[in-house]
Every structure is written in C-alpha cells, then in structure tokens.
C-alpha cells in the first residue's frame, strides 16, 4: 500500500467529539469497494474511516491497547506519510498469523506477504483504494514466513487527524483459508456431478462418431471408385474431428483450478461450449441459441461460468421429462443510477435489490418445464436444496452458480411460475479487455510440402504408443525429414547422447505424459541442458494446461492430439524456424513441472 499525505475535506467526516474522543464515518450499509466482500454482507455501525485527536503510537498503557493485543484478529497500522507506506504497528495476532517477529516487519510495506500466486488484480484494487483514501474489503492469497500460503480477508480504511490530514491506514485481517478450501471442495464436487451427468450423453455421441469412422473406413477398403473412396475418407475425418473437439472441451471443463477471472466474450464462450451442452441433454430436448454479437467483455472465470451454465441447462432438462425447448441467450443491459438518473455511477435498483449502476451483460437460460412456485424460488439457491428425488442431484447446482455470479460482481435472477417454465438470468458487469496488436502470422506449411533432402532436418520422435509413433514417423519421413524414434524418455535420452552431435538432432518431438520416471518435460530439460540449440515440440492427448505447471510454462510449444498431417508439419516447421530465438537463451526451468 502506498499513498501521499493529502489533506481531506473535514466536512466529509462526522464531527470530532468535543470531549476529545475519536470519531468515525459509519458504514450505514455501504459495501466497501472490492470484487469480493469477504464477509458477504455490509455493516451498519462499524467505521469505514476515522478521525483521531492524538496520532501518537507510544501511549500503550490503556485498556484499548490491551484489547488490541488480546484479540485473535490480526491488525496493523501503516503510515502513508513515510516512504512506501510501511507498517508502523502490528498486534500479536498478526505475528501469529504470518509467523514473523515484530522487528522483521516494522518499516516494511505489506507486499512482503505476497507471492507467485497472489492475484495481481486484487493487489491493484487494494493499491487503487489506498491511493484514493477509500475503504476496501477483499481477499488475497498471502504467504507466511515459512512460505506456506493462506487466504487473507483484508479490511482497510483511512485514519485522519482533526485537521483532515491522512495519518494512517488501519487494516484488520482474517484467515479464511478453511472457508476457501471448503468452497473449492464444493466447486469440485459439483463439477464431478456435472461431469457424471455428461457421461451418458458423451458415450452415445462417441459411439455414433466411432460408427461413422469405422463404417467409412470399411467402405474405403471395398471402394473401387477413387472419388467415392475420398468421400468416405473425408466423412471419417470429419467424425474424428468432432470427437476430438468434444474431448478437448471435456478436458478443459474437468480442470481443477482456483478462480481466475479474465475478460471474456460471453457469446463466443457459449458458442464454443454448445457442443458439450447439447451432449448433456437427451434427444427430446432442443437447444436454441440466441446470441448477441459485439457484446462488451465481462471479467469472469471461464471454467466456473461453463459449469454454472451447464448446471442451469441440466436443471432445465430435468424440468422437461417429455422434452421441450431450451433457449440460451446473451444480450446487453444498462442499469440506471437512482442517484444520477443515468448509468454514470451510484446504485441501481432491480426488483428491490441494489446493484452498481452501469452496463451489464446478461446470460439467460429459458425452458418450457413445470416451473417453480414462489416458495421454491425463494430457496432455489440454498446449498443442498433440491426438489429432485433421492440420488438425482446434490442441490449444489444453483447454489454454486449464484455464489459464482455474486463473486463476479453480478446477480443471479430466477423468473418462474408453475406450469409456465423458468428463466434463469446471470447478470455480469461489463469489463474492459486490453487491446492487443494482432500477432504476426506464423509461416504455414502445405500438407503435401516436401523438405529438400540436402537440407533435411533430423527429428527425434518420442512416443509410448506404437501406433501413434508409426503415424508420426510416416508423416515426417514422407515430408523428407530424417527421423529417429524412441518409446520412452530414458531410451530417447540414451539415443540422443549416442548420436548427437555426430548425427545432429535438430528437433525433439515428444509426448508429454509417458510411463516411467522421465516424462516429456523432464526429457526436454535434459536434452536442452546438453544442447540449448535443440528445438522442442511436445504433444499430448490431455489438456496441455492440466499437465504443464510452472512459472515459465508458456515457453513450451504443445501440439494437441489428435493432430492432422498438415498441423504436425506446420508446427514442426514453426519450431525449427524459432530454433535460434529460444534455444540458446532458454533456461532449464522454462518447461515448468509436470503432473503425471
């Protein structure tokens, strides 16, 4: 935290008590700024900012100082009039929470508690509140002295003197790690339930796709007309690509991650997720998309949004046992300020509930089911509340969706009448995505391109599946590359040491997840350690974000399976062309760590 000492308008504070006592500005139901209100409610009587008559910190003989040292709630004071807004007081509970001694923290800015996984957006929000001398309440992932992480609910407010000059910032804190872990467990449990509901629909879809692939390949074997055979091959390839798309969506959906909000186009997300949604409903249920293009981005966690949407669609499906229409729509919404009469700030009322005025994006799901009574609507977002039979659901779906929308600064609405269907709306405040210059296009290699034999590069292919290894070798050799193969990481490293640099290896093309003690990431580290000029291209049938984890993991180039011939040749060419860019400067840790 940092802020300059700037006089404040005393008229904005409650009057200082004439007896010399401190006074403050009560919250009166106003929520502190912050993307997530840690205690999930606004207060009435606590002070959001205070005015003191004596700024001296040396008088520590009174009952109130004893109370601060006896409380189990960590508290600190920082001084914005000193360079870098350092801590000038910390109570004993703060030392217990963080593991530091008093002499280790006095005179230091609070950022020493932050680490690699601390949300930079939350830090920026805290810094903004301090710069504007306003109260803020949010949650941060901080780190103790021994390096262990903990979730810290932080409540910060300014402290002024009687002249209206900012003297301190007061911060009280609360360790909410156990609550956050419980919430994560609930999210994962709900995700597993959702994946379970997807299984039957996906099995049906994959069986159909396999039938298309196998049937067309059998027809190719008996076809005498080359044009007809080519048509059969194209149909089989199309079915395989649809299966690959479903697999990628399911892998992305199944990832276990903490909330990571980022700017999203809701219309694009729903459109890309629609195949998985359609797989979750039976053939009697028709999915209709009514998606508005050109919507402003919203800042949400995409995985949690997909799970919330899938749960709402599944509820709609269950409400229509004989089938019907489910409409998924996106549209903009502007909420007018009750103070200003426009959308420029302040609060807005929607069905009697206060929301920040401004621009929103709505994602809604409408069904033709049996509907809900007012009593059911009232309890629909309660955890474990369900009207379904035993074994048909946990009652966490709408509860988790509501919590996610609220954490994202929005609101979940339910509109329903018995016998008239239900509409569930998720309102998200519009965000602002950063504008980026489009990246220069990579050079493209034609599928039938042949490498000049005189300049052919040597590729070491590592793959534990014999069938996949044979296909990769055939594709690369048919394009003119010199290929060596290995079935696992240990064998590949031995081969590399035997033939390199006499028979120079230009590119390592390796599977990420392989049996044994050496996976693709470890192998890549070992090869690059021996010769940093060797290019690396990896491939995996898993979601690459699931298996790559490290501060420099983005340096890893990954080709997802299944890949087509043109894709493989294109990525190989790109990796070889970038060889001089990253080889010599790459460090051992560039490939992150692997979870196998």
Q: Brief description of this entry?
A:
The protein is α/β, with parallel strands linked by helices. Helices cover 35% and strands 22% of the residues.
List its salient traits.
596 residues, alpha/beta, Beta-Lactamase, Heat Shock Protein 90, Rossmann fold, 7-stranded mixed sheet, 23 strands, disordered C terminus
Radius of gyration using CA atoms only: 30 Å
Give the overall shape.
Answer: flat
What is the first-to-last residue Cα distance? 40 Å
Number of strands: 23
Instruction: List low-confidence stretches.
Output: 1-17, 31-39, 433-443, 546-555, 580-596
Q: What is the assigned CATH homologous superfamily of the largest domain?
A: Histidine kinase-like ATPase, C-terminal domain
State the helicity in percent bands.
25-40%
Average residue-wise pLDDT: 78
Q: What structural category arises from helix and sheet content?
A: alpha/beta
What's the structural domain tally?
A: 3
Report the biggest beta sheet as strand number plus sense, adding barrel if it closes.
Answer: 7 strands, mixed
Share of residues in strands: 15-25%
- In DSSP terms (H or I, runs of 4 or more residues), the helix count works out at 16
| CATH architecture designation of the largest domain | 2-Layer Sandwich
Q: What is the CATH fold-level name of the largest domain?
A: Heat Shock Protein 90
What is the C-level CATH assignment of the largest domain? Alpha Beta
């Amino acid at each position: 935290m940092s802020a300059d000492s700037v006089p404040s308008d005393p008229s904005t504070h409650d009057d200082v008590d004439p007896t010399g006592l401190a006074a403050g500005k009560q919250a009166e139901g106003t929520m502190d700024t912050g993307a997530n209100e840690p205690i999930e409610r606004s207060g009435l009587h606590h002070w959001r900012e205070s005015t003191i008559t004596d700024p001296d910190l040396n008088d520590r003989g009174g009952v109130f100082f004893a109370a601060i040292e006896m409380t189990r709630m960590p508290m600190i004071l920082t001084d914005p009039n000193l360079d870098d807004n350092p801590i000038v007081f910390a109570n004993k509970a703060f030392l217990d929470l963080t593991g530091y001694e008093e002499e280790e923290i006095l005179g230091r800015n609070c950022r020493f508690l932050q680490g690699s996984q601390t949300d930079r957006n939350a830090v920026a929000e805290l810094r903004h509140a301090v710069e504007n001398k306003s109260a803020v309440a949010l949650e941060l992932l901080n780190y103790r002295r021994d390096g262990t992480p903990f979730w810290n609910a932080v409540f910060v407010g300014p402290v002024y003197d009687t002249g209206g000059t900012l003297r301190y910032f007061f911060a009280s804190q609360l360790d909410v790690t156990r609550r956050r872990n419980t919430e994560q467990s609930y999210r994962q449990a709900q995700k597993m339930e959702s994946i379970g509901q997807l299984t039957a629909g996906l099995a049906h879809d994959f069986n159909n796709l396999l039938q298309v692939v196998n049937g067309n390949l059998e027809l190719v074997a008996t076809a005498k007309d080359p044009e007809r055979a080519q048509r059969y091959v194209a149909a089989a390839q199309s079915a395989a690509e649809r299966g690959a798309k479903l697999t990628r969506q399911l892998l992305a959906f199944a990832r276990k991650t903490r909330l990571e909000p980022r700017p999203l186009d809701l219309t694009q997300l729903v459109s890309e997720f629609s195949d998985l949604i359609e797989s979750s409903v039976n053939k009697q249920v028709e999915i209709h998309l009514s998606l508005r293009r050109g919507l402003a981005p919203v800042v949400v966690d995409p995985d949690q949004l997909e799970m919330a949407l899938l749960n709402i669609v599944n509820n709609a499906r269950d409400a229509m046992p004989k089938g019907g229409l489910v409409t998924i729509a996106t549209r903009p919404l502007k909420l007018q300020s009750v103070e200003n009469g426009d959308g420029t700030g302040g609060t807005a009322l929607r069905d009697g509930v206060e929301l920040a005025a401004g621009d929103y994006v709505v994602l809604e799901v409408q069904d033709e089911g049996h509907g809900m009574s007012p009593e059911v609507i009232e309890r629909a977002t309660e955890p474990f509340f369900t009207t379904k039979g035993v074994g048909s659901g946990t009652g966490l779906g709408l509860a988790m969706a509501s919590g996610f929308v609220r954490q994202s600064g929005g609101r979940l609405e339910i509109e329903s009448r018995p016998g008239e269907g239900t509409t569930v709306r998720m309102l998200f405040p519009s965000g602002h995505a950063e504008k980026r210059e489009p990246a220069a296009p990579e050079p493209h290699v034609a599928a039938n391109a042949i490498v000049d034999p005189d300049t052919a590069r040597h590729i070491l292919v590592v793959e534990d599946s014999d069938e996949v290894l044979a296909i990769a070798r055939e594709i690369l050799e048919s394009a003119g590359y010199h290929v060596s193969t290995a079935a696992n990481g240990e064998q590949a490293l031995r081969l590399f040491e035997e033939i390199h640099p006499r028979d120079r290896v230009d590119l390592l093309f390796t599977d990420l997840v392989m049996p044994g003690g050496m996976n693709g990431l470890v192998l890549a580290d070992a090869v690059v350690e021996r010769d940093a000029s060797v290019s690396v291209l990896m491939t995996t049938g898993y979601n690459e974000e699931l298996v790559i984890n490290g501060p420099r993991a983005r340096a890893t180039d990954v080709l997802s399976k299944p890949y087509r011939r043109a894709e493989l040749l294109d990525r190989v060419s790109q990796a070889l062309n970038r060889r001089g860019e990253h080889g010599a400067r790459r460090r051992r840790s560039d490939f992150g760590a692997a979870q196998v």
